[in-house]
Amino acid sequence: MATSEPAEFAEVIHPRAVNREAIAEPPAARGLGPLAYRATALWLQEAFDDLAWDVHDVVEHGDLVVVHVTMRGIQTGTFVSYGPDARPVAAFPARGRRFAITQTHWLRTADGLVIEHWANRDDLGMAQQLGWTPPSPGYLLSMWWALRRARAAHDRQG
Fold first, then answer.
1. Please, what sign has the CA dihedral across residues 111, 114, 120, 125?
2. Which SUPFAM superfamilies match (predicted)?
3. What is the C-alpha separation between 143 and 135, in angstroms, rounded?
4. Residue 4 DSSP class
5. Which residues have C-beta within 8 Å of that of residue 115, sequence separation ≥ 6?
6. Which residue from 68, 124, 146, 149 has the least number of CB within 10 angstroms?
7. Closest among 39, 33, 5 to 18, alpha carbons compared
8. Domain ranges of the chain
9. Mean pLDDT split into 10-residue runs, the chain, 158 residues
């Protein structure tokens, strides 16, 4: 997820792969296969620099692989969250802060490739580290403006 090279996604992601976490991601990430997973990576890279995942544990059982990691980075761009209708529902402007949160990723494989993904993440810990919550009155105003810009950009593309 720290890369944006399409060929690298095709090496590990099945053409019919689904990302069960994509419900809060941009429309391009909601499809199937390597390009949808790449869209998730690009979405994360728009908001965060120096993205890295430190792998702590990997467990495999049949076609299921579980990976326990720490995700880290620095927020340098606005992070936009999307609703079920694929429209922006929240926007968190960058404050230049670093974060490090634990995550557990569940991957189902087929033909040696990832065909399904879902995750457990510490989103509250991330929000606290990045200063999103509790928001100050000034930051709430920044969030409102960022959401307006994100929705306008979405509507222009749609």
1. positive
2. NTF2-like
3. 9
4. -
5. 14, 16, 17, 18, 108, 109
6. 124
7. 33
8. 6-157
9. 86 97 95 97 96 97 98 98 95 98 98 97 97 94 96 90
Is residue 57 within 8 A of residue 155, CB to CB? The reply is no
Contact partners, residue 7, CB within 8 Å, separation at least 6: none
Distance of CA 59 to the CA centre of its chain: 22
The DSSP string of 15-82 is EEEEETTGGGS-GGGGSSSHHHHHHHHHHHHHHEEEEEEEEEEEEEETTEEEEEEEEEEEE-S-EEEE
- Two structure tokens written together for 122: 């510490």
The DSSP H or E segment spanning 5 is none
**Cβ–Cβ contacts within 10 Å for residue 6, how many?**
12
pTM of the model: 0.92
pLDDT, residue 158, reads 72
CATH ID of 6-157, from 3.60.15.10, 3.40.50.920, 3.10.450.50, 3.40.50.300: 3.10.450.50
